[in-house]
Amino acid sequence: MECKPVFRLSTQIPIEEYPPPEVFIEEAAKLVEAARSRGIVLRVMGGMAVYMRCPDEFKDVWRKLKRLGDRVFTDIDFVSYSRHKNDMIDLMRNFGYQTDSQLIMQAGKNRQIFYGGKVPMVEVFYDRLDMNHVIEYDGTLEADSPTVPLAELMLQKLQIVKINDKDLKDLAVLFATHDLGKGDPEKIDVDLVNERYMQSDWSFFYTATTNLGKVVETVKGFDVLTDSDRQRIVDRAGRILKAVNDSPKTARWKLRAKMGPKVKWYNDVDEW
Fold it and tell me: Is residue 130 part of a domain?
């Protein structure tokens, strides 16, 4: 009788058993391609997506930043559309992954969690990322591949209220390797960020602008970066901050701004 795999968090797996980062990257790329062949829209997000979008000449810098120590990645984070939910279960089973009723209940209706394959855990979010702030993916995922578009990738990090060193490093790498611009998948579309979020949502604006300031401050301590790397990061973070601040705001934004951070402005997120 075949033993059923046991779900384990990445921190519960001994380092000598832990898959190297190359396995995570290869598995993510294979899953995106397999999904495409089945008509499923599936995109990588999070820190792995930042790495995948790095030019080859900058990947060594990313590794030297040691964003997660020896483990590098803890899981693969994907986003898709809810119409693909059932198809995703079949796809993941073909790759040796499974889920169970307890994980389904914990994940909620907009997320699925899989385990038992080549990497410890795969998370698939559907339609939106609902964390400290909400990022909607209605019709935006097709604009890029194999990751979410760069603007959304940036927003995934900027929406974190208690942002940590790992996420600041991801933002620093993103700004070091991608300029701002519109109509180019290799540039960060700040106009889209403003139109969809910053002009109407003061709460998201407040968290995002606070974190952009933290990027500018903390990048000084990332010793593996060159002076020109730091200058690019500071310049681009500053240009994004200026564009966000200068963008016209809605009446809803202005009304919420009057209350400021003395009223809670973000959603709590359950920790694993």
Answer: yes
